[in-house]
Amino acid sequence: MKAICAGLTMTLCWLGTAAAQDQADAWRTYTNERYGFSLVIPSHVLAVEKKSDAGDGLVFASKDGETRLLVGALKNADARTTSSYQDYIAQQSYADYTITYRRGGDSWFVLSGEGNGKIFYEKVMFSCSSGLISSFALIYPAEQRRTFDPIVEKIEDSFRPATQCGPRPAAKATPRRGAPKVAARHPSRSLISRASGPRSARADRIARERGSDVIVILRRTGPPYDRRIVRGYVSR
Hints:
The protein is an alpha+beta fold. It has two domains: 27-158, 3-Layer(aba) Sandwich (Protein Transport Mog1p, Chain A); 181-232, no CATH class. It has helices at 10-25, 82-92, 145-158, 201-210, and strands at residues 27-31, 38-42, 47-51, 57-61, 68-75, 98-104, 108-115, 118-127, 132-141, 181-185, 194-199, 214-219, 227-232. A seven-stranded antiparallel sheet has the order 3-4-5-9-8-7-6, with helices on both faces. The protein has a four-stranded mixed sheet with strand order 10-12-13-11. Strand 12 and strand 13 (227-232) form a beta hairpin. It is globular. The chain starts with 9 loop residues before the first helix and ends with a strand. The model is unreliable at 1-22 and 179-196 (pLDDT under 50).
């Protein structure tokens, strides 16, 4: 380095050092206000595409839309273990991929794979006595692995799970006679959004078919894995 920076090459050396510093400065730490999980984001590569209404996660995307980073946390309402949740994620979120790497421990696991010209890498961490599940998933073109493999490593090294534990999820109550039934549609995990919604004509149709008022949960089976809650009434 001393020889390269000597004499006439000093300017080139300074420019190279400045470029490296600019790239380092382009990494920003994101800390979620609701749950407290955190990680660094390559802001020179990815920008915010979508924010969860519930404040529990974000979706970042590249300019060309080919790469997405999903980060979020949710309550472990079903009391899943790391092993059972790893299997669930593999089946529900990555059925179209060939799983090439999977590791795990008592409070974390990693899944990675490739399919349809894309690579995914997801890390999940349990915290708050397994009451909260935090995760990030990066999906990027396989042809750009040299660019994004180091980015994955840096994000993973910085990733810290949720710390805002709050109350533990309440036990599921037995439905009372005459209480609205829950109609689950398109089962999948909800990585980011759990915002409730108003009455829906589609939900009304389901309610009339069932003969009782319903709450319908619409869940997306692909990115960004959000969900929407709507209500349906027999009389409408």
